[in-house]
Amino acid sequence: MAGPGSSPCASCKLLRRRCAKDCIFAPYFPPDDPHKFAIVHKVFGASNVSKMLQELPVHQRADAVNSLVFEANARVRDPVYGCVGAISYLQNQVSQLQMQLAVAQAEILCIQMQNEPTLQSHHQVLELDQEHKALLLQNNNNNINNCSNNNNTNNNLGYAMSSGQFNSNFASPSSIMQMQMQMQMQDPLKQESLWT
Amino acid sequence: MNPKRCAACKYLRRRCPKDCIFAPYFPPNDPAKFACIHRIYGAGNVSKMLQQLPEQTRAEAVESLCFEAKCRVDDPVYGCVGIIHLLQTQIQNAQNELAKTQAEVAVAQTNLSQTQNSDF
Q: Does the pTM of the predicted model rise above 0.80?
């Protein structure tokens, strides 16, 4: 890649060697960004990175380098947890949002159930046959009784969440590994570029 | 010298000294753990990283390194960054869904109070 007169890539500069025409690092570590290779070399080592890139098709190497740089930066920032710290934090956020969503959906259901007898009393047309109407009325009576109890529970949940009582501890690495396996089964990672 | 070599020293085919930095975290009954971490980071880099950490944090560091190494082996292009991206997408979707649901709650509550007012 580096011809006569052209500058060696950042990796060959750091490794103090001649930058060959077919240097595997050159397309991804330009000479104007020495820090990028320095950090990857510090965490993974040049030979490991070279091996990893050689095992990948050319069109995937740029993404691989970017993800390695990201991981290396995370590891330097947090030498104990690296990227796992970020995963733990995001997992916690997902859990909290799912809980809030469940509370909001339960609230809608309660309100809809409270609305039902009012609709009936106004003789609005419901597109249900008699059998479904009877079932809905029966369930409605049960749910209204439950809703008046649940309103207190929802208020308590909301208070607890805002006061941080439901903040769970960060997941342990082993549970994160289990979560990873579940996610891969449910939603296979897309191979599109993350960096566009 | 340890009577039984740790997984790292077994893998590296060397003697396992008494103060081997790998021994507490790579027991001999789990050779795959060190093999995976060595493949991605290399023994020298892992040793350096552990030496720079206080002893009480090294076990956690090894576990997180193992996790990231396994992610990288499973997904050589994105590694654990793929998981981060997936979680960020899940968060975005959940936030959108939550905003939509909370808007529906507001509408439903408004409808309910209007209906109740019209009863009177």
A: no
- Beta-carbon contacts of A63 under 8 Å, excluding residues fewer than 6 positions away, are A193, A194, A195, B77, B78
Which chain A residues are within 8 Å of B77, Cβ to Cβ? 56, 60, 63-64, 67, 191
Span B84-109, average pLDDT: 94
Using CA atoms, how far residue B4 sits from B20, B29, B30, B31, in Å, is 12, 11, 13, 13
Is residue B37 within 8 Å of B10, Cβ to Cβ?
A: no
Please, what is the average pLDDT of chain B?
93
* ipTM confidence: 0.87
Q: Contact B81/A67, CB-based, under 8 Å? A: yes
Q: Which residues contact B81 (CB under 8 A, 6 or more apart)?
A: A67, A70, A71, A83, A194
Q: Does A151 touch chain B (CB under 8 A)?
A: no
| Nearest-angstrom CA–CA distance, A46 and A11 | 8
Whether the CB of A107 is below 8 Å from some CB of chain B: the reply is yes
In chain A, beta strands by DSSP E: none
Q: How far is the CA of A16 from the CAs of A13, A116, B4, B41, in angstroms?
A: 5, 78, 41, 21
Structure tokens given for A43:
């965490």
Scanning A44-82, the segments in alpha helix (DSSP H) are 46-54, 58-77
Residue of B nearest to A102 (CA): B98
Angle among Cα A40, B34, A45 to the nearest 5 degrees reads 20
Using alpha carbons, select from B15, B8, B5 the residue that is nearest to residue B38: B8
End-to-end Cα distance, chain A: 25
